Structure formats: C-alpha cells, structure tokens
Amino acid sequence: MEPSKMTTTAQSWGIGGLGWAILLVGCGPTRNPTALSPSLDDACIAVNAHACVQLGYLFAEGGDSGKDTALAAALDTRACNGGAIDGCVNLGVLLVNGAGVGKDEARAVALFSTACERGAALGCSNLAVLLVDGRGVGKDEARGAAAYAKACDGGIAKACSNLGVLFEQGRGVVKDEARALTLYTRACDGGYPPGCYNEGVCFEHAEGLIKDEGRAATLYKRACDGGDALGCSNLGALFAGGRGVGKNEALAAALYQKACDGGAPVGCSNLGILFEHGLGVGKDEARAAALYTVACDGSIVNACVNLGVLFQQGRGVSKDPARASAAFARGCALGDQDCCAWMQR
Predict the structure, then answer these.
(1) What is the CA radius of gyration of the chain?
(2) Which pLDDT does position 48 carry in this prediction?
(3) Tell me: the pLDDT tens digits for 197-213?
C-alpha cells in the first residue's frame, strides 16, 4: 500500500457556533476589564440593564476580573428581565453550554427567538445554529436558513458564511452554489476568516465558477492570517504543489505546522508527508509517524494509511504488524477501501 498524496480540504467549513453579544450601542467594553468593572457594578446595582450585560460578559469571559459563569448568568438574567435584549442572547449562550446555569437548550431557543424577533441579529444567528442542528427544538433547516439570512442582513458575518454552507449543500434551501459564493465573499469581507476559507475552496475546486487557484491562494492566506487553521493547510498544499503560486515546500511545511498547531488534523497529515519524504524539511520518519498518529486520531484517512505503512515496513518506528493493522482498521472505518481490502487478507 503506497503512501497517500498531500490533500486540501475540499469541503466548506461547517456551521459556526454561537456568539456572544459583546458590543452595546454607545458603551462597548474597553480593553481593560478591571478598570471598567467598578463603574459597571455601580450601574448594574442601580438597575441599568445594559451595564449588567457588560458586567456579565466580563465575568463569563474571565480576564483580570476573574471568571464566574454563575454570576454572569445571574447578571444576564437581570439584564434580560430588565429589557436588555443582549442579556437574553448571552444568557442563551450560557444555557446552551450549561455554564453557570443548568443546560437548557429549549429555553435558549426561546431566548434567541425573542431576541431575533426584537431585531438582535446575533440572536437570529444563534437561533439558526440550534435550528439547523435540532438542539432544543425540532431540526428545521429551512427555518434555520431564514434566521441566518436575517442575521447576515444584520451584519453577522459568521451567519453569512453558515448560510452559504446551506446553499452550497442544498440544506433547507434550493442548492445554489453561486449564491453560496456570494455569501462566502460577504462573510470574508466582513472579517470572518472561515468565510475566506470557504470562498477559497470554491475557487480551488471550481464549484459554480471558473477554477482560479491563484485567487484561492489569496483567500486562503486571508483565512490563515485571520487564524483559520484549514486556510493555512490548504494554502500549504498549493505551495507544496506549485498550484496558483510558486512551488515552495519549505513554506508549505511552515503553513502545515501552523495548521497542525491550530487544530487542523489535515495539516498534521500533510506535514507528516513532507517529513517522511524529506520535502522542504529534513527527512524524519519518526516525526512523520507522530504526525500521522495525531492526524489519524483526527479522522484523516490518508494519515491512517500512511501510519499503517510505516508500522508495516518499520520505518521511523519499530515494525509492528498489530499497530499497522490498527491503523488500517481505522482507515477502513473512515471509508478507505484499500484499508478495508488489506484487513480482509
């Protein structure tokens, strides 16, 4: 069984998670939570619902003031009851996560729904996450898409990207790759790095448009620079193959390392290939095996195949038929037919 080739992730970023209501009109939190807390505390005691929202956020996120999610939940409840809709949104997030309050996704759905109806775009976005996943409410992708559309129109870039995923995959809406691309562009331009990644995937793989790997590279760089690990990995693959950019395996290795460190197993897998074959880095089969292990555990089938080959041949690791078999079994479970065939020998 031959080692697999380096790959880019060809699927769009999954639906993004919940968001906090942080900024309030005219009184967003400063860079120094400790300096802000005393005045907010006085205001909240005086029943200023918006001050309670900000104070609750500080305790939910921690920082110099210390993290106290139970107190955050109490403050957000007070804010929500006092008419500050952002407090309702943040209380919903705490309820979904079971942070400082008992986990109650159904109640969170009610809070997000009310917030959305009252014009809080982030409430619409968070409501959509739960509707699409069927958490705390019956799964309803069509209603989720409508909520994402409202949030996107309200300036939530993440919602634009998530709505793009639904249009690309035809979930809850009629499949429309051109509209998906428009939404990814909107999300990217709005400062949401996964939107740039998704837009890059479209151009790399010519989904609904003319293939343009150079443009894909530019978009992946924007995503990577913004902290999107998959963007780093896909950009690395373009540099490794000289597709849309000049071939540069050393730079590819650096990008794969950044992706791997950022939690993208495919980056670990691709970096392992470079170390296994000494491409852009010194050959180091032991390090390749370690990277393949991380990636295989992260469900990257190519890494399981490559790890199995190393254990089968005793390269970089002690020859170990049992561990080779385990790696191939994992690959088979992930859908690799060559691994399945090997298991049947």
Answers:
(1) 23
(2) 72
(3) 999 999 998 765 688 99
Q: C-alpha dihedral over 230, 236, 242, 243, to 10 degrees?
A: 10
Q: Give pLDDT, residue 55.
A: 76
Longest dimension (CA), the chain: 75
Measure the CA–CA gap between 166 and 198, rounded to whole angstroms.
12
Report the SS3 class of residue 15.
coil
Residue type, 2: E
CA dist 156 and 16 (Å) reads 11
Residues 220-227, mean pLDDT to the nearest whole number: 97
Q: Residue range 167-195: average pLDDT?
A: 95
Q: Are 186 and 157 in contact (CB under 8 A)?
A: yes
For residue 278, give both structure tokens.
């000494």
Question: Does residue 69 contact residue 94 with C-beta atoms inside 8 Å?
Answer: yes
The DSSP call for residue 281 is S
At 100, list the tokens: 């400082």
pLDDT at res. 222: 98
Tokens of 41: 């505390």
Whether the pLDDT of residue 277 is over 90: the answer is yes
